[in-house]
Amino acid sequence: MHELSLAQSLLDQLIDLAKEHHAVRINRVSVTLGPFSGVVRDSFEFGFNALKQSLEIARGAELELETPDPVYLCLDCGKVSVIPFSLPSDRLELAMTSHYPKKCPWCCLNRLSPKGGTELILNQVEME
Amino acid sequence: MCDTCGCQLHDHHHHDAKVVEVNRSLLEANQKQAQSNRGHIEQMGALAINLISSPGSGKTTLLERTIEALKDTVRIGVIEGDIETERDADRIRAKGVPAVQLTTGGACHLDAPMVHGGLHVLEHFAKGGGYDLIFIENVGNLVCPATFDLGEHRRVVLLSTPEGSDKPAKYPATFRSADLVLLTKTDLLPYFDFSVEEAVKEAQMLKPGLQILSLSATTGEGFEQWIEYLKNMLKK
């Protein structure tokens, strides 16, 4: 539930940026949520869209979220791989083909260590 | 009048949309305050530890025993984070150590601005005496506290045996951010299906080289390693 406080700090940053650039309206906001940032995309989006309603300047702001795929380092063979998270819709298939736990695509062992991915970045703001 | 900006010009004021590249962390405000907290703590002559775990894994009991072991040689101060009540701060005060209770009133984690307030109160309690070691006991939660730097020098994550050895794998962000993991309540190992080997393996998979100690605050088993860790940290 800390997504709400992060959405609030994003709005605080937006207000400051709008002041700095003498803007009266924010149209679009682009944010990157790292795959290991511990932030849930849907909750963050929900929080932002709920909180922006109380701010004239941000009410029409469209939130664009980038969520890069997770990168892992294999502790057995040392290779780095991008292994996307499974979507809820994949679950049935996963259950049938047993792709879980995640395995290194190079050596097929499963000692995968997350690499980076903790970033929470405000990339770009379009305002007028 | 222009509907958009309220200006009095007859001709519509022309509003140009512009794109501003920001590339700054969403946590910037918290990070700045955390950095300032770290400076404040060092100015007080101390180092700080942020204690994170689920509710009931033994953070306050760990602190009680740690205070008993160190209070004659180390000046300790404690900031307690909870959603409600002064109970934890009262337990610490009963050990003769200054404690500030931060009640978040619902928030699931402490952030740097809250700790900033707590540090000033703690400083006031010291009456100019200063501290060597400040513990910040976070709100019991294995999820949200991971994201917020409080200005600590070390982050210690507790995992108690009744919780199960699968917790590092299930809560990776928190265990990955730890400087030290304490496996607590080891006196209960005979009664729970907890594999120390699995917990260690999975935590070190998330963060290779992560230091992990096992202890029981009840029997004192393994406690001396923790005390040694603290003494070494303070020496540096």
Which terms would index this structure?
heterodimer, A: 128 residues, alpha+beta, hypothetical protein PF0899 fold, 2 domains, 3-stranded antiparallel β-sheet, 3 helices, 6 strands, 28% helix, B: 236 residues, alpha/beta, Rossmann fold, 7-stranded parallel β-sheet, 8 strands, globular
Biggest interface and its residues per chain? A-B, 35 and 35 residues
Biggest beta sheet attributes of chain B = 7 strands, parallel
- As for the CATH topology of the largest domain in chain A, it is hypothetical protein PF0899 fold
Distance between the termini of chain A: 32 Å
Second CATH tier, the architecture of chain B: 3-Layer(aba) Sandwich
Helical stretch tally of chain A: 3
CATH class of chain B: Alpha Beta
**Number of distinct helices of chain B:** 8
**Into which percentage range does the β-strand content of chain A fall?**
25-35%
Largest sheet: spatial strand order of chain A: 2-1-6
Amino- and carboxy-terminal Cα gap of chain B: 66 Å
What is the architecture of the largest domain in chain A at the second tier of CATH?
A: 2-Layer Sandwich
How much is the radius of gyration of chain B in Å?
22 Å
- Average pLDDT figure of chain A: 90
Number of strands of chain B: 8
CATH topology of chain B: Rossmann fold
How many beta strands in the DSSP annotation of chain A?
A: 6
Question: Level of helix content of chain B?
Answer: 25-40%
* CATH superfamily (homologous) name of chain B: P-loop containing nucleotide triphosphate hydrolases
Question: Share of helix among residues of chain A?
Answer: 25-40%
